[in-house]
Amino acid sequence: MSKVITEFNINAVDFFRHSADDRPDVSLYRPHFHNSYEIYLFLSGDASFTVETEQYELAPYDLLVIPPAKYHYLNPRAGQTYERCVINFLPADIPPHFVGFLREISGYYRRVSDTDVYPLLRRMEACHKKYGAADFAALLPYMLGELILCLGTAGHERAGGRAVSPVTAQILQYVGEHLHEPLSIKTLAEALFISQSHLSHEFRRHYHISVMQYIRQKKILTAQKLIRDGARPTAACEQCGFGNYVTFYRTYKKALGASPAETAGEADRTSGL
Predict the structure, then answer these.
(1) What DSSP state is assigned to residue 183?
(2) 62 SS3 class
(3) pLDDT-derived band of residue 224, with 50, 70 and 90 as boundaries?
(4) Is the pLDDT score of 84 beyond 90?
(5) Cys-Cys with 6: which of 14, 125, 139, 173 at CB 3.0–4.6 Å?
(6) Does some domain include residue 158?
(7) Is the pLDDT of residue 268 over 50?
């Protein structure tokens, strides 16, 4: 049974959920990525967490800051209640002064209950209950900024994860460096001197999707960011290595539920705020 303790969504971008599952169902925690930053606080349970090429064994009050377009997923194990807090936001959703800290704070933090990070998250929940919607929407960006500042300046304990596999690390690195080109399993296998069958098997075993699914999603997220940053949809199509605009348009709309032009409109509205 899943229980939502606190949940709010401000301006259809900032998202916060504090929830708990008595019997976590592995099939519900699908691998995914998105163009928002994610702050993930693990409160209880028995699980590991994979972010691209690294896997982390979680302990209560461990925290992850996951940058945009990083493939990630939880690996829950049965037997314990799984409780967590998750926040998603874009750089545009916080005061400009704090944006510079975002790259610095990405990573894995151990046991933030011993610091002022966890109380800040609890205070967000309390303020959501205490204030009206308009007042809370005005306050939230500054609370997020304070959280980011805290992570970026307080010297919290950070740790590395365990490498998922050398093969998948090579694949992700190659895809990231050649995203502007047409890519195929054959292209990757020849470039990395790996058989196509071994490459496909290793990738699916660790990431639960095919290599080509990953590449398409990565290209679309990159195109979305380019368009949000002001690029024309046709330019984003070309920069992400799509063969033609019709294919790009269909893939983009199917993946994101909006057309490239609608994404450009969102960017225009955001820039005018």
Answers:
(1) -
(2) strand
(3) very high
(4) yes
(5) 125
(6) no
(7) no
Closest CA to 13 of 33, 41, 49, 38: 38
Residue 144: helix, strand or coil by DSSP? Answer: helix
- Please, is 132 exposed, middle or buried when counting C-beta atoms within 10 Å of its C-beta (0-12, 13-18, 19+)? exposed
Domain range for residue 252? 165-271
Integer-rounded Cα radius of gyration of the chain = 20
pLDDT tens digit string along 46-66? 999 999 999 999 999 999 999
Dihedral sign, CA of 238, 217, 106, 176?
A: negative
Whether the per-residue pLDDT at 110 is higher than 80: the answer is: yes
Please classify residue 160 by burial: count the beta carbons closer than 10 Å to its beta carbon, then call 0-12 exposed, 13-18 middle and 19+ buried.
exposed
Looking at the structure, tell me whether residues 75 and 123 fall in a common domain.
yes
Q: Are residues 136 and 19 in the same domain?
A: yes
> 182 vs 172, 223, 238, CA distance in Å?
15, 14, 10
* pLDDT score for 172: 92
**In whole numbers, what is the pLDDT of the chain averaged over residues?**
87
Give dist(CA 84, CA 41) in Å, integer. 6
CB-based burial, 6-37: b 16+ in 10 Å, e otherwise:
bebebeeebbbebbbbeebeeeebebebbbbb
Q: What is the pLDDT of residues 130-139, one digit of tens each?
A: 999 899 999 9
Contact predicate 230/270, CB 8 Å = no
The CATH number of the domain holding residue 14 is 2.60.120.10
